[in-house]
Design goal:
Elements lengths: L17 H9 L3 E10 L13 E9 L3 H14 L2 E8 L2 E8 L9 H19 L8 H6 L2 H24 L8 E4 L7 E5 L9 H28 L2 E4 L8 E2 L3 H11 L8 E4 L2 H16 L7 H10 L3 H15 L6 H11 L15 H17 L5 E2 L1
Antiparallel strand pairs: 1-2, 2-4, 3-4, 5-6, 7-9, 8-10
Helix pairs in contact: 3-5, 5-6, 5-8, 6-8, 6-9, 8-12, 9-10, 10-11
Length: 379
C-alpha cells in the first residue's frame, strides 16, 4: 500500500466538513468505522489549554501503529490538532485533540539555586569535623560524602533528562531537593516531563535510563567506599544506626570483606563514600517500586498498560506487610494510595513493546529484586 504525504492545512484540502477532513488525513493508514464528537475536557490530561471539538475516529489500523502514529501525528499537527491513539473493547481509536504539546521551559536559575542549596545541605550532613573546627573547614570536610551522593543522584536524573530530550519529549532540568538537618541532607532530585511520551517504548526508555545510570555510578562508589571502611565490634551501650541489607549490598560486602555482615557482633562501619553508595542502592530500589509516577510505575505501565493499575494494589499489600518490619513503609503506603494510581499515559497508547524491550523490563525486575532493601534502617 502506498502512503500519501498529506500535510496540507484543512482549509486547503477542499473538505468543508471537519470530520470528513480528518478522515481524509487518516484513511490510507486507518480504517474509520465510526466517528464520535465531543468537547475538549480534562480527561485527556492535555486539554486545559486546548479548546474546541474533539473527534474520536474508531476503527482499525491498516499499518503498524507506530508507523501510523508518525504519519497521522504530523498531519494533525500541521492542521492544529494533537493525535492520540487509544484502544477500547470495540477496537482502536484515533483522537483529534485541538491544540499542541506545551513547549519545554526549564527554569535554569531555579535548578541551579536548588542544586547549590542541596550541595550545602549535603556537605553539612557529611561533615566529620569536631566542634572546635571553624564552620567553613567543617563544611568542606563533608565533600567525599557530598560528591559521591550528588554524583549518583545527578547520574540518575540526567539519565532521565538526556534520554527524554533525545526522544523529543520535553522535560525540565533536574531539580535537587535540599533537606537540611537530616542525615542525608537531601530528598533526592526530580525532573518533570512537560508532555507525555510518544508511546510506551519511549516511556520505558526514559524510565529505565535513570535507575540504570544511577546504579552504574553507585556500584563503583560503594565498592570504593567499602574498601575505605572498617569492620568493628558493634556498640554494646547507647543507640546506633544500622543500615539495611539488600541482596546486592550483602553480596558486595561478602566480596570485599570475605564474610557476611553483620555477624558475630561485628559489622562494617561505613566510610562517608560507602554511605553514599549504599544510599544510591536504596534510592534505586525505592524508585523501581512499580507504582504510579515512580520509575517502576512507568516501567510497569509500559509493559501492562491499564492493567498496571491492578499491580498497584499488590504493591500496597506488600508495603503494608513490610511495614511490620519497618514503620517507614507506612508513609510509602500513603504515598502510593494518593499518587500511585496516576500513570503517565503515552500519546500513542496502542503500540506495544518489542521483544528486546520486554527483556529490558525483565532485567529491571531482576535489578529491583537485587537492590530493594526490605528494612532500610534500624536504630
Amino acid at each position: 500500500m502506498s502512503l500519501r504525504d498529506d500535510s496540507l492545512p484543512l482549509a486547503a484540502s477542499g473538505c468543508d466538513n471537519l470530520a470528513d477532513s480528518l478522515v481524509a488525513l487518516t484513511e490510507d493508514v486507518f480504517e474509520v468505522r465510526s466517528i464520535r464528537r465531543r468537547l475538549a475536557s480534562a480527561e485527556f490530561g492535555l486539554a486545559s489549554s486546548n479548546k474546541g471539538t474533539v473527534l474520536e475516529l474508531m476503527g482499525k489500523m491498516r499499518v503498524p501503529s507506530d508507523r501510523a502514529y508518525r504519519l497521522i501525528s504530523e498531519r494533525f499537527r500541521v492542521n492544529g490538532y494533537l493525535a492520540l491513539f487509544r484502544r477500547s473493547a470495540d477496537g482502536e481509536i484515533v483522537i483529534a485533540l485541538p491544540g499542541e504539546l506545551p513547549k519545554a521551559r526549564s527554569r535554569v536559575w531555579l535548578a541551579l539555586l536548588l542544586f547549590l542549596a542541596t550541595l550545602a545541605s549535603v556537605l553539612m550532613a557529611g561533615s566529620t569535623a569536631g566542634p572546635e573546627t571553624d564552620f567553613l573547614t567543617g563544611l568542606l570536610s563533608g565533600w567525599p560524602f557530598a560528591a559521591s551522593l550528588l554524583g549518583i543522584l545527578a547520574a540518575h536524573e540526567f539519565g532521565h533528562y538526556l534520554v527524554s530530550r533525545k526522544l523529543g519529549v520535553p522535560s525540565s532540568l533536574p531539580y535537587f531537593i535540599p533537606l537540611p538537618l537530616s542525615f542525608l541532607g537531601t530528598l533526592g532530585a526530580v525532573i518533570q516531563m512537560k508532555a507525555p511520551p510518544y508511546n510506551r517504548r519511549a516511556l520505558l526508555a526514559i524510565a529505565a535510563a535513570g535507575p540504570l545510570a544511577g546504579l552504574a555510578v553507585a556500584l563503583p562508589v560503594l565498592v570504593l567506599g567499602l574498601k575505605l571502611s572498617t569492620v568493628e565490634a558493634l556498640p554494646t551501650t547507647g543507640p546506633y544506626f544500622q543500615e539495611g541489607n539488600s541482596l546486592i549490598y550483602a553480596a558486595i560486602k561478602l566480596l570485599v570483606f570475605g564474610r557476611f555482615l553483620p555477624a558475630g557482633g561485628q559489622d562494617v562501619f561505613l566510610h562517608p563514600v560507602a554511605m553514599a553508595g549504599w544510599t544510591g542502592l536504596l534510592v534505586t530500589g525505592l524508585n523501581l517500586i512499580p507504582a504510579g509516577q515512580l520509575d517502576g510505575g512507568h516501567i510497569a505501565y509500559a509493559l501492562l498498560g491499564e492493567r498496571a493499575r491492578w499491580l498497584t494494589w499488590g504493591v500496597v499489600a506488600a508495603l503494608v506487610g513490610l511495614s511490620l518490619l519497618w514503620n517507614g513503609w507506612a508513609v510509602w503506603v500513603a504515598l502510593v494510595l494518593v499518587f500511585g494510581r496516576v500513570h503517565a499515559v503515552p500519546l500513542d497508547d496502542i503500540t506495544p513493546l518489542r521483544t528486546f524491550e520486554r527483556a529490558l523490563v525483565f532485567a529491571l525486575a531482576v535489578v529491583f529484586a537485587l537492590v530493594f532493601t526490605p528494612m532500610p534502617m534500624a536504630f
